[in-house]
TrEMBL record:
Cofactors, names only: FAD
Transmembrane segments: 6-26, 397-420, 432-454
GO terms, molecular function: flavin adenine dinucleotide binding; squalene monooxygenase activity
Role according to the record: Catalyzes the stereospecific oxidation of squalene to (S)-2,3-epoxysqualene, and is considered to be a rate-limiting enzyme in steroid biosynthesis.
Compartment(s) where it occurs, according to its Swiss-Prot or TrEMBL record: Endoplasmic reticulum membrane; Microsome membrane
Topological type in the membrane: Multi-pass membrane protein
Family per similarity comment: Belongs to the squalene monooxygenase family.
The protein, known as: Squalene monooxygenase
Keywords annotated in UniProt: Endoplasmic reticulum, FAD, Flavoprotein, Membrane, Microsome, Oxidoreductase, Transmembrane, Transmembrane helix
UniProt-listed GO biological process terms: ergosterol biosynthetic process
Domain FAD dependent oxidoreductase: 9-39
Organism taxonomic ancestry: Eukaryota, Fungi, Dikarya, Ascomycota, Pezizomycotina
Length: 463
């Protein structure tokens, strides 16, 4: 094998959201960081376009807030929901006297800004290259560094060494399976299009269409461009068979249910726009126990993107990780015991921000994709709960925005919505027989509600 031997404090594999954030956090602490990215071209993907307000705050904590400037990002103040023939809005209420705002943008432009910002921090070396192998100690299995094919003209293979390697190579991680038995599970894909020259009905709001067919998400990614993502379950896609059938499906099932103002431009986009898809996966995190290695971002933990929280989790993880591995507490990252102790704390401490976002994403998705009659009662209750105003939605909106860290608050509100739905349902019955029937259905609502939140909750708690 040709090449030099180079040494750093930390090697980060992948300069996506998580990799850039971790590289920035460690280098600001004076660590020498090597960030290796397989392509430094601007990414062109349909992921990571809406950053929750909590993610904006984390970006500020990392000293990277400027990355939201100059990319035509739109402030996001809330969400507007269409559900069957009803609708409701919720927004991020003031918290600590400040109005929280998210941002939506073109993913590639944001990532390019992050890479430029990270490159300018002293102590960071950003290299274009593909990591092909992790170097491991034969006896202890400790990760010692990486082998990478670098794009330096002659595609030279190089070895890089560091006491700590951070795996941030995303959802399709090539190396994850060496360290965890967790595998991403996807039951559906988001199919995405860009709609040109269409303004959403409420500026600065993301819009969701639910209960009118497949779940649909829309938000601006620039002043004149709106992203639409449509969740199509895998069995339906298998029946459709190819992307022209998906276009026909979108014309038939999606165009008629979006707001009128969007329809003509959406029909055009479905006809001739670039149609792309990404799997929507769920993967609970597992504790890092390998010496010399940490996994972050989608390589370690994923949730359904319906709530747009993956980047927020990754940025908050970077802030926490750097604080736990602070040089004041751990001057040398080859102090394996200290790093492993910090990783144990990281695994449980991160749940204060990640668990509620992970569980919320899965539970909301399962609630609105379900065809269970009991859950239809809860879907209606959810919309009415939101219509009841800030006293109901303020805290759940903060949870969704990554602004509060209270997993039990989420459980409380989920059950409150179930009870609220039951009360609404019982009130609709005017006869004794109808009331007895509604009571039976109400028990079903509670069981179904617990059924959808239980799985993700247990996944979060047991690892
Ligand atoms: C359809 C969809 C929509 C989404 N929408 C949102 C949203 O609106 N808001 C939100 O917050 N989250 C969203 N997410 C989730 C979000 O995109 C991810 O959580 C986030 O991008 C994870 O960042 P990451 O750095 O872990 O991975 P990535 O962003 O995928 O970065 C991984 C990087 O590693 C590089 N890499 C991979 N292998 C190697 C290798 N061997 N050597 C060198 N480099 C390598 C890749 O080139 C890439 O640059 C969405 C996800 C999906 C699927």
């Amino acid at each position: 094998m040709a090449g030099k031997i180079l040494e750093y404090d930390v090697i980060v594999i992948g300069a996506g959201i998580a990799g850039c954030a971790v590289a920035a956090a460690f280098s600001r602490q004076g660590r020498r960081v090597l960030l290796i990215e397989r392509s430094l071209r601007e990414p062109d993907r349909i992921v990571g376009e809406l950053l929750q307000p909590g993610g904006v705050n984390a970006l500020r904590d990392l000293g990277l807030a400027d990355c939201l400037e100059g990319i035509d990002a739109t402030p996001i103040e809330g969400y507007h929901l269409y559900w069957q023939d009803d609708e409701a809005s919720f927004w991020f209420c003031d918290i600590d006297g400040r109005k929280p705002e998210g941002r939506s943008f073109h993913h590639g432009k944001f990532v390019s800004k992050l890479r430029d910002a990270v490159c300018s921090i002293p102590g960071v070396s950003l290299v274009e290259g593909t990591v092909t192998e992790l170097l491991r100690d034969e006896v202890s299995s400790r990760v010692l560094g990486v082998v990478a094919v670098c794009s330096t003209g002659d595609d030279q293979m190089e070895m890089f060494y560091a006491p700590l390697t951070v795996l941030a190579d995303g959802s399709n991680s090539n190396f994850r399976s060496q360290f965890t038995s967790s595998k991403p599970k996807a039951q559906s894909r988001f199919w995405g299009l860009e709609i040109a020259d269409a303004r959403l009905p409420i500026p600065r709001y993301a819009h969701s269409v639910l209960g009118r067919g497949p779940p649909i998400l829309m938000y601006p990614i620039s002043t004149y461009t709106t992203r639409i993502l449509v969740d199509i379950p895998d069995p339906i896609f298998r029946d459709l068979g190819n992307s022209s059938a998906v276009r026909a499906y979108l014309q038939e099932r999606v165009a008629p249910v979006v707001p009128n103002v969007m329809r003509p431009q959406l029909r055009l986009a479905i006809k001739s726009g670039r149609l792309r898809s990404m799997p929507n996966a769920w993967m609970p995190s597992t504790r890092n126990t390998t010496l010399g290695l940490i996994m972050v971002g989608d390589a370690s933990n994923m949730r359904h993107p319906i709530t747009g929280s993956g980047m927020t989790v990754a940025l908050k993880d970077a802030v926490l990780l750097a604080s736990l591995l602070n040089p004041a507490d751990i001057p040398h990252l080859n102090d394996s015991d200290a790093v492993l102790r910090a990783m144990r704390r990281f695994h449980w401490k991160r749940k204060t921000h990640s668990a509620s976002l992970n569980i919320l994403a899965q539970a909301l998705y399962l609630l609105f994709v379900s065809e269970d009659k009991n859950l239809a009662i809860m879907q209606r209750g959810f919309v009415r709960y939101v219509q009841d105003g800030e006293k109901r939605f303020a805290e759940p909106a903060w949870i969704m925005g990554g602004l509060t860290s209270n997993p039990f608050g989420l459980f409380y509100h989920f059950l409150s919505i179930a009870v609220y739905s039951i009360r609404l349902h019982l009130r609709q019955s005017s006869t004794l027989f109808g009331w007895i029937l509604a009571l039976g259905q109400s028990a079903g609502v509670l069981v179904s509600a617990l059924g959808i939140i239980w799985g993700p909750l247990v996944d979060e708690l047991r690892r």
